[in-house]
Design goal:
Blueprint lengths: L1 H23 L3 E6 L10 E6 L3 H19 L5 E3 L6 E5 L3 E6 L1 H7 L1 H4 L8 H4 L1 H12 L1
Parallel strand pairs: 2-5
Antiparallel strand pairs: 1-2, 3-4, 4-5
Helix pairs in contact: 1-2
């Protein structure tokens, strides 16, 4: 039971780290879905949108570097780097999807996994919310 808690904490930490790294690269509509609550496919999906193929690549690369440097993990599989309409990074328990808006809308992962709990992005990225609030107050 203790090892499950450690694994869950690690996968949660990885999903949060991916969301923060995506935010650092100005990703939009960042979402963390706890798919492990309804599937054995993974514990978490992290979904983010980039506005250009160059930005999609930069977001995916930023996530990969952050996880590699901080958690010493590399993706088991990656797909989509050459086209960059949808880059997938599979870390086993965490699967990251960085997509162009058209791909994200067409494939509708949020709708497909709509029955899975979503993490509150405001809790995951508090520094973004705080800086946004400061900008609004000024």
């Amino acid at each position: 039971m203790t090892s499950n808690l450690i694994t869950e904490d690690f996968t949660y930490q990885m999903s949060v780290m991916a969301a923060v790294a995506a935010d650092d690269r100005k990703a939009e509509d960042i979402m963390v879905i706890a798919v492990g609550e309804v599937s054995v496919l993974a514990d978490y999906f992290v979904i983010a949108t980039g506005r250009s193929k160059a930005q999609v690549r930069a977001i995916a690369n930023g996530i990969k570097i952050k996880i590699s440097e901080e958690l010493h993990r590399e993706p088991i599989r990656m797909a989509g780097e050459s086209d960059a309409g949808w880059i997938l990074q599979d870390y086993g328990d965490v699967i990251i999807h960085v997509m162009m808006p058209t791909e994200r809308e067409f494939y509708g992962l949020e709708a497909f996994w709509g029955h899975a709990p979503r993490l509150d992005i405001l809790e995951i990225l508090p520094q973004t919310v705080n800086s946004a609030n400061v900008a609004v107050e000024v």
